[in-house]
From TrEMBL, chain A:
Organism of origin: Devosia lucknowensis
GO CC annotations, alphabetized: plasma membrane
Keyword check for Membrane: yes
Keywords in alphabetical order: Cell membrane, Membrane, Transmembrane, Transmembrane helix
Membrane topology: Multi-pass membrane protein
Positions of transmembrane segments: 29-49, 56-74, 80-101, 108-128, 148-168, 198-215, 221-241, 248-267, 273-296
GO molecular function, one term: branched-chain amino acid transmembrane transporter activity
CDD domains tied to this protein: TM_PBP1_LivM_like
UniProt name for this protein: Amino acid/amide ABC transporter membrane protein 2, HAAT family
Subcellular location: Cell membrane
Location, primary (coarse class): membrane
Automatic annotation (TrEMBL), chain B:
One Gene Ontology term from the biological process aspect of the record: L-amino acid transport
Annotated ABC transporter domain residues: 2-235
Native species: Devosia lucknowensis
PROSITE patterns reported in the protein's UniProt record: ABC_TRANSPORTER_1, ABC_TRANSPORTER_2
Keywords, comma-separated and alphabetical: Amino-acid transport, ATP-binding, Nucleotide-binding, Transport
InterPro entries in alphabetical order: AAA+_ATPase, ABC_transporter-like_ATP-bd, ABC_transporter-like_CS, BCAA_Transport_ATP-bd_LivF, P-loop_NTPase
Protein name (database record): Amino acid/amide ABC transporter ATP-binding protein 2, HAAT family
Keyword Transport: yes
GO molecular function: ATP binding; ATP hydrolysis activity; branched-chain amino acid transmembrane transporter activity
UniProt keyword annotation of Plastid present: no
Family: Belongs to the ABC transporter superfamily.
UniProtKB/TrEMBL annotation, chain C:
A UniProt-annotated Pfam family: ABC_tran
Domain (ABC transporter): residue spans on this chain: 2-239
Organism: Devosia lucknowensis
Alphabetical UniProt keywords: ATP-binding, Nucleotide-binding, Transport
InterPro entries xrefs: AAA+_ATPase, ABC_AA/LPS_Transport, ABC_transporter-like_ATP-bd, BCA_ABC_TP_C, P-loop_NTPase
GO cellular component: plasma membrane
Keyword NAD: no
Keyword Acyltransferase in annotation: no
CDD domains, sorted: ABC_Mj1267_LivG_branched
SMART domains xrefs: AAA
PANTHER family named among the record's database cross-references: AMINO ACID ABC TRANSPORTER ATP-BINDING PROTEIN, CONSERVED COMPONENT OF ABC TRANSPORTER FOR NATURAL AMINO ACIDS-RELATED
Protein name: Amino acid/amide ABC transporter ATP-binding protein 1, HAAT family
Gene Ontology BP annotations: D-alanine transmembrane transport; L-alanine transport; L-isoleucine import across plasma membrane; L-valine import across plasma membrane
An MF annotation (GO) of this entry: ATP hydrolysis activity
Automatic annotation (TrEMBL), chain E:
Predominant location: membrane
Pfam families: BPD_transp_2
Keywords: Amino-acid transport, Cell membrane, Membrane, Transmembrane, Transmembrane helix, Transport
GO molecular function: transmembrane transporter activity
Transmembrane segments: 6-23, 35-54, 60-78, 99-120, 140-161, 193-215, 227-252, 259-279
Cellular compartments per GO CC: plasma membrane
Name this polypeptide is given: Amino acid/amide ABC transporter membrane protein 1, HAAT family
InterPro entries associated with the record: ABC_transp_permease, BCAA_transport_permease
Biological process terms in GO annotation: amino acid transport
Keyword Transport: yes
C-alpha cells in the first residue's frame, strides 16, 4: 500500500516537473516535448487494447484524423472545450461501430482490416468534402499555443497511464490477457469477449481521437492527406511494440527513445536519414528482442540474482 | 542397431535426461515405461534430432553418429517418430499428410505399397482421404500421425503414446497393426502408459524415472516384476 | 432425483458430414455419466454443443429445464457448466494461479484480490498442485496442465462438469489418483459427464454410460449392462475388452 | 559583430509522398542558388562585404508535424538567419504562423492558394509567389474561350480533378470562370489521389464529345493520363494537364508526344536571363528545371539575396524591402503587390520541346497557342 | 460499355494480383510479414528503367537480369536477416512482431539506397504503350502483358503448390513448421526458397508496373499495402485467392469509376475488402476460421 502511495507521489512530482518544463525550454524544445508526448499517448492508448489482446490495430490514424477534422470543422462555431468533447464522442461512436464490425476477425486479418478501415474513412472524408462542402483543405485559426497543447497532451498521457494502471489491476485486465491467450478458454470461463474487447477498443480509440483533436491547432492547415497519414498508425505500432506493448510503461519506453532517435537522425543526417534509421532499427530488433522494458527487466534480474549469490 | 549412450539433455537449467543408455537391435521392439515427466518424450525427441543433447552424448545408428544431424535429415536414415500431440499437418488433407510422410527419398520406391498397407490398417483413413486433418477427431488424427510415420519406410519407428485417446477397439487393432509392422522387420521404440498391452508386444523394456534409466529387463520379466507392478501396473494386471 | 441436463434431438452437421445425429439423453443431478464411442463418433462435438463452443444445427440442450443451447459459451458458463478440453487448453502467458484466478474472477459470484488468491490455492491443492501457483503455466508437464485445467473448471463452481478424456495419458498409478479426485467431486454433489476411453476408469466412476457410434446414440444404461452389449462390443470395445 | 557566415535553413520533403515534387521544384534551386552565391564569395551586405552561406537542411519526410518541428528547430536551435519555404501548399501554411511569430519572412514559392491575399494580411512577413487556383483556372478559361470564339473548338469541356486541396481549388474556380466565359462543362469528375487507372474517365471524356480535356492532376496522374490517352487514341483538340506536365522528366518520358499539351506555368523563351538560368541549372544539377514553379523559387531567392544586399540581415528590414522593393530577377523586373507575385504565366504549352508561356497572351513574351494538339505519335 | 469496363477491370486487377502474389508466398509460407515488399517492387522498376534508358535493354529482356538478381537478393536477405529471427522465435513465438519490426527497418534501408542512387523524382518511360483491341475494349499492351503474366504465374504456381509433392512440402511448412522436419522437410531451406521466390515475384511486378506507371523512391509502401489488402482478401498464403481478389478489386474499381463516381474508386475497393472480411473473416479462399 505504502509503496503504491509513494509511487503515486513520485509520479505526481514527475508530472509537475514535466508540466513546468516548457518554461525552461525554447519553442523547439516545447515542440519536441509536444510531439513526443503525442506519441507517448498514442502508443500507450494503442497498447491499452492491443497489448494484452495482441490485436494489432492500424486504425490509429483514422481516429487521430477524425479528431483533427472535428476540430477543423467546429473550431469556429463551438467553444474549444466543447469541440474536444464532441471530437471524443465522435471517436467513441465510430469506435463502437468499428469494434462491433471487427469482433470476428483475428490475427493479420484484423491488422489489415483496420488499415483498410482507416483508408476508407480517409476516402470518405475526402469524398464528402469534395462533393458536399466543396473545399478540401480547412484552416484552424485557434489561439492555442504549443505550451497549451503540450499541457493538454501531458494531462491526457497521465489519464491514459492511469487507466492502464487501473486496468492492469482490474478484472478487465486479466480478461484481456486471457483473451490474448485463448479466446475459447476465455468464453468458457464466463468472459463476455465481445463486451470486453469492445469497451477497451472504445476507450483506446477515444483517447487517440483526442490526441488528434488536441494536436490539430498546431498545423493551421488540414487536409486528409495530412491528418490521415498512415505513417502515424505505423509509428504508433512500432513504438509500442518496441517498448513492450503489454506493460504499462512499455509504450512510453518505446515512444520516447524512438521519437528522440527520429529527431536526432533528422537533425543530423537529413540526407541519410532513411538508411541510418533502417539499419538502427534492424540492429534494435536483433539486440533488444523482447522490447526495451524486458531488456531492462532482464538486466535487473541478472543483477538481483548476482546479489543473491554473493 | 540403434545405440544411445550417455545421453544427457538440459532444458535451460532443468535436467530432463541424465546419462541415458539404451539400445535397440534391428527388428526388435522395446518399450519405455515411466511416470509423467520422467523424460520419455524427451528421449525420443533427442533421437529424432528435435532437441540438442549435451556434449558427450552419443546416438549411433549402425555405427554412424546421428548427433549433430539436423532433424530433417533423420527420417532419411530410417528413423521415424510419431510425436506426442501427433504433429499432423492440420490444414492439409489425409492424403497430403500421407504423401508428405513419403517425402524422404528412401520412401519413394515403396510409396504405393505403403499407402495400401496404411489404408488397410486404418480403414477410416481410406474413407476420409480428402478430409482436412484439422477437422478430424482426436483418434482419427492419431491414425494419420502413425500412418504418416509408416509412409517413410522406417527401420526404426518411435511412437510416443500412440494409444492416447484411442477407443479400446482401435487400441487393440493398433497393436495388432503394430505387430504386423514388426513382422515387416521394423524395429519399434514405444513409449506407452498402457503398460500391459505394450509389454505384450515388446521384447524388452526400460524403466525411466526423473530423467534416468532405473531398470531394464525382458518384457516377460517386467510383466511379473513386483517393482514394476507397484509403479506401473497398479498392483494388478488390470 | 432431479434431472439436471436434458438433451433433445441434438444434431450437428459440418458441411455434408453429420457428426452428431439426433442424440437425446438426460443426466440426473449428482450422476457421473460416461459418454463413450469410437473415435470420431461425435463425443467431443456433443460436449462442444453443450458448452456452447459449437452451435447446434438443430435440437436443444436444457439445464434444469432452462434451454441453454443458443447461448454463447460465457452465458452457458454462467448457468453453471464448466469443462476441460480434449487437447488441454492452458493460458500460457499466465502463471498457474492466474489461470485459476481468471476463472474465479468471471464466475457469477466473482472472487477477486485476496479472496481469489486464497481460493485458487485451495483449488490447486485439491488437484495436487498445491504451492505451485507461481510457476508458468506453459512450463508444467502435460499431466500437471491437465490438473490445472480441472482446477480452472472447478473454480467456476459448476453444477455440470464436462470432462473430455481428462484421464488419458496417465499411467496406472496416476490414473488411480485421478479417479479418486473425480470421485471426491461427486461427493461434493457435482454432476459430471465424462468422455473416456479407459474402461477401467469408466467402470470405477460411472453409474451410467451413453454410447455413440457414427453420430448416433446406440446404447444408454447402467455401465455394466452397456459394456456387455453386443452392439457396443462390436463398435467400440472389441472382443478383447469385453 | 564578427559573424563569418549567414545561416540559411530549410526543411523540405526529401522523402515521402511529397519528395517527387520537392525534388524537382525546390531542392535543386536551393542548391543551385547557394552554390552560386558562395562561388561569388557569399551574400553581399550593404557595406559591400560578403558572407558565405551556411546551410542547415532538414527532411520533413512529408509530414506536417515534422515540418513544423523542423522549422522550430531551425529558428530556435540552429538560430538561422533566414528560413526558406517548404514545398507544398499545406506545408507552407503550417509553417507560416510559426515564422510570423518568430519574425522570419516566408517566401512561399511552391504554394498555390486563393487565400494568398488574406494570408499576406494575416502574416505580414509572408510572400506568395505562385498565385491561386482561380488565377490559373481563369487564364485557362480565357484560352479556351478565345479558341472557341475563333471556331477552333466547340464550347464543351471535360474536366477531371484530383481530390486534394490543389485540384479542388482549381476545379472550383474553373466551374465559375468557365461558365462566365460561355464554356459548357459536360463532364466533371474528381478522383482520389493514388488513382492509377484512368481509362474509365478517358472513355467517358471521349464519349462526351468535348473538344477540350482538362485535368487538374498531380504528377503520377499526369504521367498516367498521358500514357493512357495514347492507348485509347484519345486526341482532343485541347489537352490540358496539371502538375508534372512542366517537369523535364515529362518531356523525357513522352518526347514528341508532348507537343501541344497545355498546363500551368510556362516560360518566356525570349527572356535571356531566364534561359541563362535554365542552362546553369542544367549544368549544375544535371537536369533542367521545370517550366513552372522552379523559376519563381529561384527568383524568390534572388529577391532575398538582393534585399539583404540593400538592407542587411535585419529580418524586419528584409521583409519590408521584399514587400516594397523592385528587383531584377530571372523573371525580369519583379515587384510584389500586396506581398504577392502577380506577374505570372498562368498557362503554357509544350511547343518543340519547350514549355512556352501563352497566357496572359497580351503580356510581352507570350507565345501563340497552337491548336489543335497533334495526334499521338506511335513510339 | 459494360464489356469494356469489365475487360479493363480484369486487366487492371491482373496487375494488382501480380504484385500481391509474391507477398502471399512470403507471408503465407515463410511467415515473414515483409513491410519492405513494395520497396523491392520499386527497386525493380528503377532497375528496368535504368536498363531501358541507359543500355537500351527492353524491360522484358531486362527481366532476365532483374529477376534472378531479385531472387538472389531475397535469398540473401532471408539468410542474413530472417533466419536468426525465425530461429529465435522458435522458442518465443514472436516471429510476426519481429519480422514487422525488422522489415520496417529494411524498408528504410532500401528506400534510402534508392533515394541516394535514383533521387526522389518521379520516373516514367514508355514501353509497349499502345492500345490492343480486345472485344471492343482498348487495352494498353503493357497492362495486358502484366495481366497475362499474373494469370500464368498464378496458375502455374497454384498447380505446383497443390499438385506436386514439392508444393505440398511448401504448404506443410506454412501449416506446421514444427512437424515438418519429421517428414524430412528442411524448413529453413524451403522457407528461404519461398521467400526468395516471393521477392522475385515482387520484382516481376515492379518491372511490369514500371512500363505503365509513374514511380518514385518513396512509393513502395503503396504497393505493400495494396498487396496486403489483396493477400488478406484472398486468404493468406493462397495464390488463387490473391489472383481472384486482385481481379475482383480491378473490376470493382473500373465499374465504380465508370458507372458511379471515380471519386469513390478507392473507397469502394476498401468497402469490398471490408465487406468480404466481415462475411468471411479469413478471406475468400482462407481456411474457415477454426472455431
Ligand atoms: N520444452 C521444454 N522446456 C522446458 N522443460 C521441458 C520441455 N519439455 C519437457 N520439459 C520437462 O522435461 C521433463 C521431461 O519431459 P518429457 O516430456 O520428456 O516427459 P515424459 O516422460 O514424456 O512425460 P509425459 O508422460 O507427461 O509425456 C519434464 O519435467 C518436463 O516438464
Ligand atoms: N470443425 C469440423 N469440421 C468438419 N468436421 C468435423 C469438425 N469437427 C469434427 N468433425 C468431424 O466430426 C466427427 C466427430 O468428431 P468428434 O471430435 O466429435 O469425435 P469424438 O467422438 O470426440 O472422437 P475422439 O474419441 O477421437 O475424440 C469426426 O468425424 C470429425 O472428423
Ligand atoms: Mg511425453
Ligand atoms: Mg473427442
Amino acid at each position: 500500500m505504502t509503496r503504491t502511495t509513494i509511487g503515486f507521489g513520485l509520479i505526481a512530482l514527475a508530472l509537475a516537473a514535466l508540466a513546468f518544463l516548457p518554461t525552461q525550454l525554447g519553442a523547439y524544445g516545447v515542440g519536441l516535448l509536444l510531439g513526443m508526448t503525442g506519441y507517448v499517448v498514442l502508443a500507450s492508448a494503442w497498447a491499452l487494447f492491443s497489448g494484452p489482446t495482441r490485436y494489432i490495430s492500424l486504425a490509429t490514424v483514422a481516429f487521430f484524423g477524425i479528431g483533427a477534422y472535428t476540430v477543423a470543422v467546429l473550431s469556429e462555431t463551438l467553444p474549444y472545450p466543447l469541440v474536444l468533447l464532441v471530437a471524443g464522442l465522435i471517436g467513441l461512436v465510430v469506435a463502437l461501430v468499428v469494434g462491433l464490425a471487427t469482433l470476428r476477425l483475428a490475427g493479420v486479418y484484423f491488422v489489415i482490416f483496420t488499415f483498410g478501415l482507416a483508408e476508407l474513412i480517409r476516402q470518405l472524408v475526402t469524398w464528402y468534402e469534395v462533393n458536399v462542402t466543396g473545399t478540401l483543405g480547412r484552416y484552424i485559426f485557434l489561439p492555442i499555443t504549443a505550451e497549451q497543447i503540450y499541457w493538454q497532451l501531458l494531462a491526457l498521457a497521465a489519464v491514459t497511464l492511469g487507466i492502464g494502471w487501473w486496468i492492469a489491476r482490474s478484472r478487465i485486465g486479466l480478461a484481456l490477457k486471457v483473451i490474448g491467450d485463448d479466446e475459447t478458454v476465455a468464453s468458457h470461463i464466463g468472459i463476455d469477449i465481445s463486451r470486453v474487447k469492445l469497451s477497451l477498443f472504445a476507450v483506446s480509440a477515444t483517447i487517440i481521437t483526442l490526441v488528434g483533436a488536441i494536436q490539430a491547432p498546431r498545423w493551421t492547415y488540414i487536409e486528409p492527406a495530412i491528418v490521415f497519414n498512415p505513417t502515424v498508425s505505423f509509428l504508433t505500432v512500432i513504438m509500442a511494440l518496441l517498448g513492450g506493448a503489454n506493460r504499462l510503461w512499455g509504450p512510453v519506453l518505446g515512444a520516447v527513445p524512438l521519437f528522440l532517435l527520429f529527431e536526432w537522425l533528422s537533425a543530423n543526417f537529413p540526407n541519410h536519414y532513411s538508411i541510418i534509421l533502417g539499419l538502427m532499427f534492424i540492429a534494435i530488433v536483433f539486440v533488444v528482442p523482447r522490447g526495451i522494458l524486458s531488456l531492462g527487466e532482464d538486466v535487473m534480474r541478472r543483477f538481483r540474482s548476482r546479489e543473491l549469490r554473493s | 542397431m540403434l545405440e544411445i549412450a550417455n545421453l544427457s539433455l538440459l532444458y535451460g537449467r532443468h535436467r530432463a535426461l541424465e546419462n541415458i543408455s539404451v539400445g535397440i537391435s534391428e527388428g526388435e521392439t522395446v518399450v519405455i515405461l515411466g511416470a509423467n515427466g520422467a523424460g520419455k518424450s524427451s528421449l525420443l525427441k533427442a533421437i529424432a534430432g528435435l532437441v540438442t543433447p549435451e556434449a558427450g552424448s552419443r546416438v549411433m545408428l549402425d555405427g554412424k553418429s546421428l548427433i549433430g544431424l539436423p532433424a530433417h535429415d533423420i527420417p532419411e536414415t530410417g528413423i521415424a517418430l510419431v510425436p506426442e500431440g501427433r504433429g499432423v499437418f492440420g490444414d492439409l488433407t489425409v492424403e497430403e499428410n500421407l504423401m508428405l510422410g513419403a517425402n524422404p527419398r528412401r520412401a519413394r520406391a515403396t510409396e504405393a505399397d505403403r499407402h495400401a498397407l496404411i489404408y488397410d490398417l486404418f480403414p477410416r483413413l481410406a474413407e476420409r482421404k480428402r478430409q482436412m486433418v484439422r477437422t478430424m477427431s482426436g483418434g482419427e488424427q492419431q491414425m494419420v500421425a502413425i500412418g504418416r510415420a509408416l509412409m517413410s519406410n522406417p527401420k526404426y519407428l518411435m511412437l510416443d503414446e500412440p494409444s492416447l485417446g484411442l477407443a479400446p477397439i482401435v487400441v487393440t487393432e493398433l497393436f495388432a497393426a503394430l505387430k504386423r509392422v514388426q513382422q515387416t522387420g521394423v524395429a519399434l521404440l514405444l513409449v506407452e502408459q498402457n503398460v500391459s498391452i505394450s509389454l505384450s508386444i515388446s521384447d524388452r523394456g526400460y524403466l525411466m524415472e526423473a530423467g534416468r534409466i532405473v531398470g531394464a529387463d525382458t518384457a516377460e520379466a517386467l510383466k511379473t516384476d513386483t517393482a514394476v507392478q507397484q509403479a506401473f501396473l497398479g498392483g494388478s494386471t488390470a | 432425483m432431479t434431472q439436471l441436463l436434458d438433451i433433445t434431438a441434438l444434431t450437428k452437421q459440418f458441411g455434408g458430414l453429420t457428426a452428431v445425429n439426433k442424440v437425446s439423453f438426460s443426466v440426473n443431478a449428482g450422476e457421473i455419466v460416461a459418454l463413450l464411442g469410437p473415435n470420431g463418433s461425435g463425443k467431443t462435438t456433443l460436449l462442444n454443443m453443450i458448452s456452447g463452443a459449437l452451435q447446434a444445427t438443430s435440437g436443444t440442450v436444457a439445464l434444469e429445464g432452462d434451454i441453454i443451447s443458443g447461448l454463447p459459451p460465457n452465458g452457458i458458463a454462467h448457468k453453471g457448466v464448466s469443462r476441460t478440453f480434449q487437447l488441454v487448453k492452458i493460458l500460457p502467458s499466465l502463471s498457474v494461479a492466474e489461470n485459476i484466478i481468471a476463472a474465479l474472477a468471471f464466475r457469477p459470484q466473482p472472487l477477486w484480490g485476496r479472496g481469489a488468491r486464497d481460493q485458487a490455492e485451495v483449488l490447486l491443492d485439491r488437484v495436487g498442485l498445491g504451492g505451485r501457483g507461481d510457476e508458468h503455466a506453459d512450463e508444467l508437464t502435460y499431466i500437471d496442465q491437465k490438473r490445472m485445467e480441472l482446477a480452472r473448471a472447478l473454480a467456476s463452481e459448476p453444477r455440470l462438469l464436462l470432462l473430455d478424456e481428462w484421464l488419458s495419458g496417465l499411467n496406472p498409478t496416476e490414473l488411480r489418483v485421478g479417479i479418486d479426485l473425480i470421485l471426491s467431486l461427486r461427493q461434493s454433489g457435482m454432476t459430471i459427464v465424462l468422455v473416456e476411453h479407459i474402461m477401467e476408469a469408466v467402470r470405477a466412476l460411472c453409474t451410467r454410460s451413453v454410447v455413440m457410434n457414427v453420430g448416433s446414440k446406440i446404447a444408454d444404461g447402467p455401465t455394466a449392462d452397456v459394456l456387455s452389449d453386443a452392439g457396443v462390443i462390436a463398435a467400440y470395445l472389441g472382443d478383447g475388452n469385453a | 559583430q564578427d559573424r563569418t557566415s549567414v545561416k540559411i535553413g530549410y526543411a523540405v520533403s526529401m522523402t515521402g509522398g511529397n519528395a517527387g515534387g520537392a525534388g524537382i521544384t525546390t531542392i535543386p534551386n536551393y542548391k543551385l542558388w547557394v552554390h552560386e552565391v558562395n562561388e561569388a564569395g557569399g551574400l553581399e551586405l550593404p557595406d559591400g562585404t560578403r558572407l558565405p552561406i551556411e546551410v542547415v537542411e532538414y527532411d520533413d519526410r512529408s509530414s506536417a508535424e515534422e515540418v513544423v518541428r523542423a522549422v522550430e528547430r531551425l529558428v530556435t536551435q540552429d538560430q538561422v538567419d533566414f528560413v526558406l519555404s517548404p514545398w507544398g501548399t499545406g506545408f507552407n501554411l503550417a509553417v507560416a504562423p510559426l515564422l510570423d511569430r518568430f519574425g522570419y519572412p516566408l517566401i512561399a514559392s511552391a504554394a498555390v492558394t486563393d487565400k494568398a491575399p488574406e494570408f499576406a494580411e494575416r502574416w505580414t512577413r509572408s510572400f506568395w509567389l505562385l498565385g491561386g487556383g482561380a488565377d490559373y483556372a481563369g487564364a485557362l478559361s480565357e484560352v479556351l474561350a478565345a479558341a472557341h470564339a475563333s471556331g477552333e473548338i466547340n464550347g464543351d469541356v471535360a474536366i477531371i480533378s484530383v481530390a486534394d486541396g490543389f485540384g479542388i481549388d482549381l476545379v472550383n474556380a474553373a466551374r465559375a470562370t468557365f461558365a462566365e466565359a460561355g464554356l459548357n462543362i459536360v463532364m466533371d469528375r474528381t478522383y482520389p489521389p493514388g488513382t492509377t487507372d484512368f481509362s474509365p474517365m478517358i472513355n467517358e471524356a471521349q464519349a462526351s464529345g468535348a473538344d477540350s480535356f482538362v485535368a487538374f492532376s498531380y504528377p503520377p496522374d499526369t504521367f498516367a493520363l498521358t500514357q493512357q490517352a495514347q492507348v485509347a487514341s484519345y486526341n482532343p483538340d485541347v489537352f490540358y494537364l496539371g502538375v508534372g506536365t512542366p517537369f523535364p522528366t515529362y518531356l523525357a518520358a513522352n518526347g514528341e508526344n508532348t507537343e501541344g499539351i497545355l498546363s500551368l506555368g510556362g516560360i518566356d523563351t525570349s527572356n535571356q536571363a531566364l534561359m541563362d538560368y535554365r542552362q546553369r541549372h542544367t549544368d549544375f544539377i544535371g537536369q533542367a528545371p521545370d517550366f513552372w514553379a522552379s523559376q519563381m523559387t529561384y527568383a524568390g531567392l534572388e529577391m532575398l539575396e538582393e534585399a539583404i544586399k540593400r538592407v542587411g540581415l535585419d529580418r524586419d528590414a528584409v521583409a519590408e524591402e521584399l514587400s516594397s522593393g523592385t528587383f531584377t530577377t530571372i523573371l525580369g523586373e519583379t515587384r510584389l503587390e500586396d506581398n504577392q507575385l502577380r506577374d505570372l504565366w498562368w498557362t503554357g504549352q509544350w511547343q518543340n520541346g519547350v514549355f512556352v508561356a501563352i497566357e496572359p497572351s497580351e503580356r510581352e513574351g507570350a507565345s501563340a497557342i497552337v491548336l489543335p494538339k497533334q495526334t499521338w505519335q506511335a513510339q | 460499355m459494360l464489356l469494356t469496363a469489365l475487360i479493363s477491370g480484369l486487366v487492371l486487377g491482373g496487375t494488382y494480383a501480380l504484385v500481391a502474389m509474391g507477398l502471399t508466398l512470403q507471408y503465407g509460407i515463410s511467415r515473414i510479414m515483409n513491410l519492405a515488399y513494395g520497396e523491392v517492387t520499386i527497386f525493380a522498376a528503377f532497375a528496368a528503367f535504368l536498363l531501358f534508358s541507359t543500355f537500351g535493354i527492353n524491360p522484358l529482356m531486362g527481366m532476365i537480369i532483374v529477376l534472378p538478381a531479385a531472387f538472389a537478393f531475397g535469398y540473401l536477405i532471408y539468410g542474413i536477416m530472417m533466419q536468426p529471427l525465425v530461429r529465435r522465435s522458435a522458442k518465443s513465438g514472436t516471429l510476426e512482431v519481429d519480422s514487422i519490426l525488422a522489415t520496417f527497418g529494411l524498408l528504410f534501408v532500401i528506400q534510402g539506397v534508392m533515394l541516394i542512387t535514383f533521387g526522389s523524382n518521379y520516373t516514367s518511360y514508355n514501353y509497349l504503350n499502345f492500345g490492343v483491341n480486345i472485344f471492343g475494349a482498348n487495352i494498353a499492351a503493357n497492362r495486358l502483358l502484366a495481366f497475362v503474366l499474373a494469370v500464368v504465374i498464378g496458375a502455374t504456381l497454384f498447380l505446383v503448390l497443390t499438385r506436386t509433392r514439392w508444393g505440398t512440402t511448401v504448404r506443410a511448412i506454412a501449416v506446421a513448421p514444427k512437424s515438418a522436419p519429421l517428414v524430412g522437410i528442411n524448413v529453413n531451406r524451403t522457407a528461404r526458397f519461398a521467400f526468395a521466390l516471393g521477392t522475385m515475384l515482387a520484382a516481376s511486378g515492379g518491372v511490369m508496373v514500371s512500363m505503365y506507371q509513374t514511380f518514385n523512391a518513396s512509393m513502395g509502401v503503396v504497393f505493400t499495402m495494396k498487396a496486403l489488402v489483396i493477400v488478406i482478401m484472398g486468404g493468406l498464403g493462397n495464390l488463387m485467392g490473391a489472383l481472384v481478389a486482385g481481379l475482383l478489386l480491378g473490376v470493382v474499381e473500373t465499374l465504380v469509376a465508370t458507372y458511379v463516381d471515380p471519386g469513390l474508386t478507392l473507397a469502394s475497393t476498401y468497402v469490398i475488402f471490408l465487406v468480404i472480411l466481415l462475411w468471411k473473416p479469413s478471406g475468400l479462399f482462407g481456411k474457415a476460421a477454426g472455431r
